[in-house]
């Protein structure tokens, strides 16, 4: 009793970033007995997919021979290019760090100069009987100093 059944086409419609894609799977559909199903299952080959990923400025070391076969010395050129790029990045990082340190030192110096100027202004105005103005100068200097110290500690903790 071997009956042929017409082919049925399964269609999976998927939408991806490049547009619509329709996948079709044409397989004859027939009833499979339990015996055939278990025999088919026993004969199935299980395939394992091995996937590797490699990230870096140069290709994977196992590909070095292929590059050398195309152009002799190409892998060495890639290594020297990666070394130059690394040296360049380290130089930029060093300059950035030095500039940040210099900026911090300058900010502290200018803050100290402003604080001393406010204290001198408070003393001078206090000597000329302007106590309210002298208090305003001292309050401004004190609040600025305290807020800088508190904010500096918060930034270090984060």
Automatic annotation (TrEMBL):
Which segments carry the region annotation Disordered? 1-38
Which Pfam families does its entry note? DUF2335
Q: Does the keyword Thylakoid apply?
A: no
Basic and acidic residues compositional bias: what residue ranges?
Answer: 1-11
* Highest taxon of the lineage: Bacteria
What InterPro entries does this protein map onto? RP532 (IPR019284)
Q: Which residues form a coiled coil?
A: none
Give the transmembrane ranges.
Answer: 109-128, 134-152
The entry's keywords: Membrane, Transmembrane, Transmembrane helix
> What protein name is recorded for this chain?
DUF2335 domain-containing protein
């Amino acid at each position: 009793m071997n009956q042929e059944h017409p082919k049925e086409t399964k269609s999976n419609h998927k939408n991806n970033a490049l547009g619509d894609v329709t996948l079709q799977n044409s397989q004859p559909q027939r009833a499979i007995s339990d015996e055939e199903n278990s025999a088919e299952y026993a004969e199935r080959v299980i395939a394992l997919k091995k996937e590797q990923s490699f990230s870096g400025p140069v290709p994977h070391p196992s590909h070095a021979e292929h590059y050398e076969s195309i152009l002799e010395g190409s892998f060495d050129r890639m290594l020297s290019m990666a070394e130059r790029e690394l040296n360049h990045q380290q130089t930029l990082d060093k300059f950035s760090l030095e500039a940040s340190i210099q900026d911090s030192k300058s900010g502290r110096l200018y803050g100290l100069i402003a604080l001393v100027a406010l204290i001198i202004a408070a003393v001078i105005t206090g000597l000329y009987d302007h106590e309210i103005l002298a208090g305003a100068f001292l309050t401004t200097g004190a609040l600025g100093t305290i807020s800088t110290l508190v904010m500096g500690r918060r930034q270090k903790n984060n």
